[in-house]
Amino acid sequence: MLFKAIGYNWLVQMGPGLVQLSYALRLPIEGIIRKTIFKQFCGGESIDDCENTINELWNYRIGTILDYSVEGEEKEEVFDATTEEIIRTIQKAAGNEMIPFSVFKMTGIARFHLLFRINSHNQLEQKETEEYNKVKERLDRICKAAHDNNVRLFIDAEESWIQDTIDSLSRAMMLKYNKEKPIVYNTIQLYRHDRLEFLKRSFSDAKINHYYLGTKLVRGAYMEKERERADDKVYDSPIQPNKTSTDRDYNEALRFCIKHIDVIALCAGTHNEDSSQLLVNLMQENNIAPNDKRIYFSQLLGMSDHLSYNLSHAGYNVAKYVPYGPVKAVLPYLVRRAQENTSVKGQTGRELSLIKTELKRRQAEK
User: Fold this and answer.
1) Residue pLDDT, tens place only, 173-229
2) What average pLDDT does the segment 32-48 reach?
3) Which residues contact 316 (CB under 8 A, 6 or more apart)?
């Protein structure tokens, strides 16, 4: 029923406004969200709440990536609290084979508009410079905690108009903490037509400066927003002209990473069956063991379980993103998941088709 609902584009577009209105009118909407979309895509409201999900996934040798999915805040005290929560996820992962990575978003610890100002090369006021110094201190604390606890750390990708700033910060942390092994990973969205070249430049930089390049490859999650902004501001969209181009660049990025696996540590964040099969083939062709820790497959909790469970069963390293946080605070994440499912051709239909097939199989067994 949930995936059928997500399949209705008009409902997904109206949903966020209706939810905000329900909160404003003090209607009991939170309980409905908790029992439906939150239950499907989130592990709980706290790290402790995620314990059952962590154990359940590990029963099938699937790791958990705890993702504190609070974003888009504006207050310094919230950024400080989020930093402490991210460090707690790192401490939870330390020495725990069930939790192979930690993850965070820069907009969880920094004001979006500040990142945009820096990305636009605007001259910062003194107050903004002080604010940015605090952001860099938070970032360094998080990455140092990951380094000291030997926990690999993803820095997620975000909108193109703040991504250059995120890339610069990620590089600085890799330069500092990836000298001995890959700890910090930057995320590359291949639905952008310029990111395959960025991957190649990043590799060259890592070679020249003698650090390991941690790379998480995804297709992307901001497609509609990117195109709308490009139209509104009248500039060329950074998004690929079509899905075929995205698929081509994603698969070429996989080939490039495997070719340079001595320098690049790879996480393939994908729900695409063809790309997953390609990476399996590349590993076999290059005599790379399925459980080689330099290579991971990753999917989101509640999606593409047929990939996660079969890859894990075949001996490959797999980890699920497990978002958590207060229901109201993770709504932006949940909205994005719903929008992504309606905007990416075939995603919702495939999930729904697999669910229907499984239900029919179970009914036939009874």
Assistant:
1) 999 999 999 999 999 999 999 999 999 999 999 999 999 999 999 998 777 788 889
2) 87
3) 280, 283, 290, 291, 295, 297
Among the listed residues 208, 216, 233, the one whose alpha carbon sits nearest the alpha carbon of residue 270: 216
Is-contact 320 300, C-beta < 8 A?
yes
CA distance 4 to 130: 48
Q: Which two tokens stand for residue 69?
A: 């999915």
pLDDT in tens, 157-170: 999 999 999 999 99
In the structure encoding, which two tokens stand for residue 254, read together?
């996989």
* Annotated domain spans of the chain: 1-42+328-366, 43-324
- How close are the terminal C-alpha atoms of the chain, in Å? 22
Cβ neighbors of 300 (< 8 A, separation 6 or more) are 41, 271, 320, 321, 337
CATH number of 43-324: 3.20.20.220
Q: Which residues contact 181 (CB under 8 A, 6 or more apart)?
A: 212
Which residues, at least 6 apart from 114, have a Cβ–Cβ distance to it below 8 Å?
128, 131, 132, 135
Q: Where are the beta strands (DSSP E) in 16-100?
A: 63-68
Contact present, 143 and 177 (Cβ < 8 Å): yes
Report d(CA 254, CA 243) in Å as an integer: 17
For residue 173, give the 3-state DSSP assignment.
helix
d(CA 132, CA 118): 9
